[in-house]
Amino acid sequence: MKAIVFREGSQWAVENVETPVPGPGEVRLRLLRTGVCGTDEHLLHGGFIAKFPLIPGHEMLGEVDALGDGVETPAIGTTVVVDNTIHCGECRACLSGRALFCENFSSLGCNAPGGFAEYVVVRAAKTFPTHGLHPDIAVLAEPTACAMHGVDILDLAPASDVLVYGAGPTGLILSQLLKMAGAARVTVVAPTASKLELARRFGADHTIVIDRDDPDAVVSELRELAPHGFDAVIEATGSVRVLEQAVGLTATGGTVMVYGLAAEDAFARVSPYEIFSRELTIKGSFAQAFTMERAMVALRSGRIQTDGIITDVVGFEDFDRALANLKDSSQIKTIMDPSHVATTPN
Ligand SMILES: [Zn+2]
Ligand SMILES: [Zn+2]
Q: Which ligand has the shortest distance to the CA of 90?
């Protein structure tokens, strides 16, 4: 089968690799669409939990085309989305109910074969039927599940005033979920006006353009909106300067949540005295965990809007465009669709 393969030294290529065969408890999917995510860029350069050679792609939508031993459902022909995480269930973290931090954590598309391929093998129990949900909506299940986990972690009080930095796929979905989770007002700050326009269409109450080169210029406007600070401030950009700014804009007793993926060696300057004297809470949200089912409910209900989030669709041969799109501020979510290439396993 064809697959995108990442190798050591930020190299990638379209390669012919062996079509995977499902083992006990597994199913093989013929991939229909796989979302391209900023994490893929980090993985290409060896960041996050990359293990080479790697077939990336963790936002998968596919049709079941082969069953491993003992698998009865999902039946062949079922269209499903995938929880790409695999926890061992036996390590200290798993046994303490913190499976997300499993010591043997494997994540399809990050340190195990993922969905930028014609086929992928996944755990049958970690598939979720789309029940006819439009593929362009269903393919957003994984990023929605990640945002849902963030909302779980944030644990908002009803009628909270929330500030979100970032209007990428995550910021756009997260800002809607926050409304479901109790935010009375959501303000979104991002550098691209067209994305903020979408955020407003999706229900954001206020949107403010931030200048990447002069992020502090927005502070006075944000202070005017929330003179005593925001109850919760979510950093969904991965920018250190934004995180540094977020602390000062958080209300006394409020919470800063780090959602964006920064470089592993990045450090932010925050005042311990401020955290201490204003009793601030700093939280992190790292991946989806046990939220796929609810993500599908949210998407199916139509209460999470997605129209306009997908801005480009690529095949194997133009994967370089998918990577370029990650750096193009006019792009939001690129989808890889392998359908124009061979569809028979060999
Ligand atoms: Zn992702
Ligand atoms: Zn474990």
A: 2
